[in-house]
Amino acid sequence: MLQWPRIPENVNALAQGAGAVMKAEEQSLERLHVLAQQIGLDVPQACVPGTLSNMILLEKYVALIMELPLPDVCTPAPEYTP
Question: Are the CB atoms for 42 and 36 separated by under 8 Å?
Fold first, then answer.
């Protein structure tokens, strides 16, 4: 298994507790590693911190979208004509 570099400590580490932040980072790094393997993506070590930040941001957006209540019947959007 590849060894991913550690991400610099989060600014909020003191407020949240350094142990919880480090555990979350380790879990995020592991998820990144698994996802990269699943799609055949080689993430250079220099790109891991940025890729991880983007992955975490996108996961937050996905959670927001998944929380939206949708009715059982949705009216389709009008057809787009350029």
Answer: yes
Could you read off the pLDDT of 1-49 as tens digits, one per residue? Answer: 444 445 444 444 544 555 555 677 788 889 999 999 999 999 999 999 9
Residue 47 is given by DSSP the state G
Q: Model confidence over 25-35: pLDDT tens digits?
A: 788 889 999 99
DSSP helix/strand/coil, 64: helix
CB of 27 closer than 8 Å to CB of 55: no
What letters, b where the CB count within 10 A reaches 16 and e where it falls short, cover 1-17? eeebeebeeeeeeeeee
